[in-house]
């Protein structure tokens, strides 16, 4: 049975068709320039609202010619599902009855952790989902997100984020799927497939972002092409993504928002993207104000649309000046028409022009039904990484008293990643979120749900997240003291931490569970920390807990790896929970007590120091800089035995695929899921290929005592390198390795690719191995 992604499964459906072109041409022949400009801009709903309600007067004043998009329409509101749907219907009614051309708008929102709206299921942050190594689970999560968004009347998402992140210092690290291009590509394709579905008219159009090389040094063309571009290329070619958002970054001294090398040559001509390109919020304005690459905002707008950005988010600032830019010879009407056409084609594809279309779903709406909560629970279980276990986990039946301490023990702050609805309301609006809508389950509640009634839990915070505000805000883009307000919001209603009581109850316990780490004020876009250790006084607090002599289970929450090199050797167990979402407390508790066997493995290298440098397992780890834990690492409550490696000794370089098979046996007493990883290394030291690269993986459930056979069908094209501006598969020998992590290699063998070097004239076509 084919359990992987085959080359023939690619979604190469064109963005447009002759039928769509004819409809759009007919519509555009009737449009004035003002009406065209309206379609290539986005705005906020708040601009049209007075006292919390839509104002028709504001609509007539501000969008008399219609509008392309409403930006982050639900995170700007605090509405129940039915009220949100009705708000969308009200605005669409105005557009479809009062504007001359009656063109509806696209309502878009963030979706990396589910539909970012009040009451909707909140899944683990993407870095946690990266550690699940479970693309099928990602797809199921985003299918549920698509249902919620369509029910509210939304049709478009500014997700997924596909940037590779190779330093935990980056404030957006948590939004990534980690440091590896192959893993990120597999997860990204699953995300897009789930959210878009088989039909744009029933699914949600995805936007892959941030194109490309955002959050990295981005200074090697070979690495850019082979790695940073790969997730975008895979999502476009395999999953049919039709919207791309460029990053705020710079490529060869020119902001990517106005960079034709990236947006025209790489994206459209080389990758073959034929969809719509949208600006990041305020990115075109930055070309003028931040990067000083344009003398005024009008010129910045002309530069952006000439480079290939079709629509301006999130406020109509630059593109309304394009008519003036035409007069000055900075842009042509033909260029504007091309952008307008793409925006209208997207609306047609989404079904917004269909007769008798339904905007949202009638009746009562539930954005967090039991089946979605179950998905959130499973996602949390599979994203939580067990890093260390001296045998204390799962908890033994002789444990009668637990000291539960730390700032994340009984609070919801550590459950929520950036771009969740809750985090966005707290950061952007400085408003408290409702922890009951959806219900956010803390670790304390999870343990109370999971432990036997005879087990006593004593709780005390012991310390705050940080003694001082350790994060700082990017004032150039965010410009106020909202971090200070956010910190006050995070401790609102909490008693002062009592260190002495925390130590007292710890001394009296059988085991200490220390819930440490970050919260939404210490991690996220626009926020950066001074370092990546445990914040504030947390490390000193853990030192005091260790001094009690009682075993300490350290549970880490947050959006990055937090350096714990001074504590690691003395903790009895260490669990990295990331930002695990609404069911995080239940998932953690069930792992701690043994109802769930942990199965996650790191999608990033776990550093052993706070040095500000990029770390990438593909370069190998030197003896002088061994990480605390390597890429691909994670523990289980059972053991697995690998055997019977089978692979041909040589194949033709032009062969479509060759097979690598192994047996994996669960030798323990507990059912589990093992993540089997396939790596390749060059045998030629002079090869331009990095020392080790992931080329396949399979998460497989194996019952205790049972054995499963896995087969990877590998294409020689997966070994393609970008050399002298060409895609080449070099003939010669390669070593394939089966591992439980990037450093725990169980089996390996060498295969010789016979024949002349293979030149891929049209670029790479095959990205993934097929698992059987």
The CATH level-2 architecture of the largest domain is identified as Alpha-Beta Barrel
N-C termini distance:
6 Å
Strand order of the largest sheet: 12-19-18-16-13-14
- Percent strand equals 15-25%
Largest sheet: 6 strands, mixed
List how many beta strands DSSP finds. Answer: 31
The top level CATH class name of the largest domain: Alpha Beta
The helix count comes to 21
Overall body shape: globular
Low-confidence stretches: 1-8
CATH superfamily of the largest domain: Glycoside hydrolase, family 3, N-terminal domain
Which value, in Å, is the CA radius of gyration? Answer: 26 Å
Helicity level: 25-40%
CATH topology of the largest domain: TIM Barrel
Number of domains: 3
Structural class: alpha/beta
Mean pLDDT, all residues:
94
Structure description:
The chain is α/β, with parallel strands linked by helices and 772 residues long. It folds into three domains: 16-43 and 119-349, Glycoside hydrolase, family 3, N-terminal domain (TIM Barrel); 384-602, Rossmann fold, CATH 3.40.50; 640-771, Immunoglobulins (Immunoglobulin-like). Helices cover 29% and strands 19% of the residues. The protein has 21 helices and 31 strands. The strands form nine sheets. It has a six-stranded mixed sheet, sandwiched between helices. A five-stranded mixed sheet has the order 21-29-28-23-24. The longest helix is centred in the N-terminal third of the chain and has 18 residues, at 81-98.
């Amino acid at each position: 049975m084919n359990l992987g992604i085959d080359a023939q499964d690619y979604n190469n459906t064109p963005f447009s068709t002759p039928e769509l072109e004819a409809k759009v041409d007919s519509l555009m022949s009737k449009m004035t320039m003002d009406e065209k400009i309206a379609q290539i801009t986005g705005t906020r709903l708040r601009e049209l609202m007075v006292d919390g309600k839509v104002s028709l007067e504001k609509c007539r004043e501000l969008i008399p010619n219609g509008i392309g998009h409403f930006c982050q329409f639900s995170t700007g509101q605090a509405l129940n599902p039915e009220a949100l749907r009705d708000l969308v219907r009200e605005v669409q009614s105005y557009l479809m009855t009062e504007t001359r051309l009656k063109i509806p708008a696209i309502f878009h929102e963030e979706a990396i952790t589910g539909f970012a709206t009040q009451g909707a299921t909140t899944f683990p942050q993407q870095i946690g989902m990266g550690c699940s190594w479970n693309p099928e689970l990602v797809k199921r999560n985003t299918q549920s997100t698509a249902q919620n968004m369509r029910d509210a009347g939304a049709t478009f998402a500014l997700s997924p984020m596909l940037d590779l992140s190779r330093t935990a210092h980056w404030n957006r690290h948590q939004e990534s799927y980690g440091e590896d291009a192959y893993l990120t590509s597999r997860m990204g394709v699953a995300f897009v497939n789930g959210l878009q579905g088989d039909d744009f008219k029933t699914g949600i159009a995805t936007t892959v972002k941030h194109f490309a090389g955002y959050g990295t040094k981005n200074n090697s063309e070979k690495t850019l092409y082979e790695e940073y571009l790969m997730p975008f290329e895979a999502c476009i070619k395999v999953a049919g993504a039709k919207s791309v958002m460029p990053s705020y970054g710079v490529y060869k001294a020119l902001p990517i928002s106005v960079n034709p090398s990236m947006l025209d040559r790489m994206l459209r001509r080389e990758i073959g993207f034929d969809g719509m390109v949208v600006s990041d919020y305020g990115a075109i304005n930055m070309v003028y104000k931040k990067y000083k690459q344009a003398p005024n905002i009008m010129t910045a707008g002309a530069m952006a649309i000439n480079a290939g950005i079709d629509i301006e988010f999130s406020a109509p600032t630059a593109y309304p000046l394009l008519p003036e830019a035409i007069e000055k010879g900075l842009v042509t009407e033909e260029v504007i028409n091309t952008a307008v056409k793409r925006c209208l084609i997207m609306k047609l594809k989404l079904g917004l022009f269909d007769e008798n279309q339904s905007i949202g779903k009638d009746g009562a709406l539930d954005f967090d039904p039991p089946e979605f909560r179950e998905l959130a629970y499973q996602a949390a279980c599979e994203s939580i990484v067990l890093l260390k276990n001296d045998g204390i986990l799962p908890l033994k039946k002789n444990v009668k008293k637990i000291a539960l301490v730390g700032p994340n023990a009984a609070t919801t702050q550590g459950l929520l990643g950036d771009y969740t609805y809750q985090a966005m309301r707290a950061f952007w609006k400085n408003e408290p979120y409702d922890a009951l809508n959806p219900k956010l389950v803390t670790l304390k509640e999870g343990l109370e749900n999971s432990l036997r009634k005879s087990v006593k839990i004593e709780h005390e915070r012991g310390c705050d997240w940080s003694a001082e505000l350790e994060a700082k805000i990017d004032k150039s883009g965010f410009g106020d003291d909202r971090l200070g307000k956010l910190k006050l919001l995070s401790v609102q209603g909490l008693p002062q931490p009592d260190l002495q009581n925390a130590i007292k109850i710890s001394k009296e316990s059988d085991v200490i569970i220390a819930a440490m780490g970050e919260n939404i004020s210490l991690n996220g876009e626009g926020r950066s920390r001074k370092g990546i250790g445990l914040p504030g006084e947390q490390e000193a607090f853990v030192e005091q807990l260790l001094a009690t002599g009682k075993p300490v289970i350290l549970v880490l929450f947050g959006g990055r790896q937090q350096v714990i090199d001074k504590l690691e050797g003395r903790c009895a167990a260490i669990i990295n929970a990331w930002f695990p979402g609404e069911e995080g407390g239940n998932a953690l508790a069930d792992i701690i007590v043994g109802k769930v066997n942990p199965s996650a493995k790191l999608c990033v290298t776990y550093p052993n120091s706070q040095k500000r440098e990029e770390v990438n397992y593909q370069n190998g780890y030197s003896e002088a800089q061994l990480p605390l834990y390597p890429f691909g690492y994670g523990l289980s409550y059972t053991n697995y035995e690998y055997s019977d490696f089978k692979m041909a000794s040589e194949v033709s370089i032009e062969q479509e695929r060759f097979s690598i098979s192994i047996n994996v046996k669960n030798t323990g007493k507990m059912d589990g899921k093992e993540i089997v990883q396939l790596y390749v290394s060059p045998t030629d030291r002079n090869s331009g290929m990095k020392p080790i690269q992931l080329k396949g993986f399979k998460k497989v459930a194996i019952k205790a005592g049972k054995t499963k056979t896995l087969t990877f069908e590998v294409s020689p094209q997966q070994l393609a390198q970008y050399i002298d501006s060409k895609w080449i598969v070099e003939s010669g020998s390669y070593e394939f390795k089966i591992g439980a992590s990037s450093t725990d290699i169980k089996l390996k063998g060498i295969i010789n690719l016979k024949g002349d070097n293979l030149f891929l004239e049209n670029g790479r076509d095959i990205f993934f191995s097929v698992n059987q």
